[in-house]
Amino acid sequence: MKICIFGAASNLIDTKYIKEVEKLGEFLGEKGHSLVFGAGTNGLMGAAARGFKRMGGKVCGVVPHFFREECVEVIFTECDELIYTETMAERKAKMEDLADAFIIVPGGIGTFEEFYEVLTLKQLGRHTKPIALYDIDGYYDKLEEFMEYSMEEGFINKVCKEIYACAGTPEEVLQYIENDKPVKRSIKDLKNG
User: Fold this and answer.
1) 3-state class of 89 per DSSP?
2) Which among 105, 43, 52 is positioned nearest to 81, based on CA atoms?
3) In whole angstroms, what is the distance from residue 174 CA to residue 26 CA?
4) What share of the chain is helix, strand, coil (3-state, %, to 5)?
5) CB-based contact 163:191 (threshold 8 Å)
6) Contact 162, 186 (CB under 8 A)
């Protein structure tokens, strides 16, 4: 399975996250899965790639040309395949197309945007791919509280909880993405209730 991992691109985070995402990459690589990611060396993107490579997993990086040309980010040099795009939107679309599943590890604004985009696309029936939040040390607890609050207030349909999972270990993440079944609900049911 080609697994797209979205997450932080910064090294200015607690090393516990880096260590845990490297372990996740090792675990998934050892199980025969491959990685699709934003091609960065730093932060949790780089951690995932190092983990996959360490255990023999294939790594596909997707990055806009301007990242290389303007030195926006150090590109992971051990990619088995490196795909260049013109824009950030094309980058994300390419990763979404290549992936069979999505894992969202801790991250910031860009990571949140990526999570909500793949979640929205699944809600609208544009894909049926598994989406898992990897909740390291309670990082996504507040996001889950916010999702619940939004559901209570009627802004998000409660059935949307059926189209992604929040898991606290690599084993739970893998269990979900390997066994997720497409939701048997119409787009209208998911969107409007």
Assistant:
1) helix
2) 52
3) 12
4) 50, 15, 35
5) no
6) no
Give me the sign of the Cα torsion angle 175, 25, 60, 68: positive
For residue 73 the two structure tokens come to: 């980010």
pLDDT of residue 152: 95
Contact indicator for 148, 119 with CB cutoff of 8 Å: no
**Which DSSP helix (H) or strand (E) runs through 134?**
strand 131-134
**Cα–Cα–Cα angle for 127, 2, 12, rounded to 5 degrees:** 100
The token duo for 148 is 């619940």
Q: Which residues pair with 34 in a beta bridge?
A: 2
* pLDDT tens-digit map of 99-149: 999 999 999 999 999 999 999 999 988 999 999 999 999 999 999 999 999
- The pTM (predicted TM-score) of the whole model is 0.93
DSSP code, position 75: B
Which residue carries 């910031």 as its tokens?
108
Cα(110)–Cα(50) distance, integer angstroms: 21
Secondary structure of residue 121 in the 3-state scheme: helix
Amino acid at 161: K
Q: How far is 117 from 139, CA to CA, in rounded Å?
A: 19
Burial class (CB in 10 A: 0-12, 13-18, 19+), 104: buried
